[in-house]
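Q: Sequence in, structure out?
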Amino acid sequence: MTAAPHVRLETALSDFAAALEAGLAARLNATPRPGEIARPARLLAAMRHAVLAGGKRLRPFLLTEVARLLNPGLTVDALMPASAAIECLHCYSLVHDDLPAMDDDALRRGRPTVHVAFDEATAILVGDGLLTLAFDLLADPACHADPAVRAALVLDLARAGGLGGMVGGQMLDLAAEGRFGDGARPDEAEIRKLQAMKTGALIRAATVMGARLGGGSDDVLHRFGRFGDVLGLAFQLADDLLDVTATESEMGKAVAKDAAHGKGTLVARLGIDAVRAELDRLVAEATELLSPWGARSATLAAAARFVAERRR
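A: Exactly. Output:
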């Protein structure tokens, strides 16, 4: 008897997270790299606190799984620079989101946030350092032998993480809280746009970068771009559901923040039942996008269900 899909996925996620943790730790050691002068101990410790704190590691997992689906000869180690890069950028965003000027959170992944464990100035520099390290990893020849591929990966991540992606989405999210005094609240289309930017863009980058590293054609990159869009929306909808249904101990961070901040979400606008129905539709679309690869895409299909049905 074979293991149930969710059991196999949990094992795959756990195994990958352990490998990524080791890869990140190796890249955040005290020895300066060529071209560096020194790595200040306090900053390094705070960066490690931010990055080596567990978590789902979903984005690098998706990157790796897509790449290996298209090119089974690729190894987790070979893909580690790109995997570590996208996780560093994601972790930088969490450190900055947790700051008092943003979400003012004291808990992340069940541990004190960086500005609480260290201080605000250090937390800002941690974010700066992790953001820079992400592009260092992608630009390094160890990431890929072809400079054109490395340049494309840098562009993928920069576009997803910047003004027109994650950072821009964070600005729209702050505006949705009424931070800037106009009192306007976003409608459904505006909520979907800010969520596609703040959350979805980086998940889409993970699937596109994986397809690029796997040698996918333009059509394949487009298909996995849509797959990432679907997963990004599902992830945010599930997150919004958890904010109103989960406890702080289950999540390892504060909950009920959206309502407290007066933030518009699709859960608030459409209701829990409608959001759950949309999650079912998104899982079906994600599964259909994987159909050209048949049974070989079972892990990615299970990941889509996990994103939509997660409980933390």
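The radius of gyration is 19 Å.
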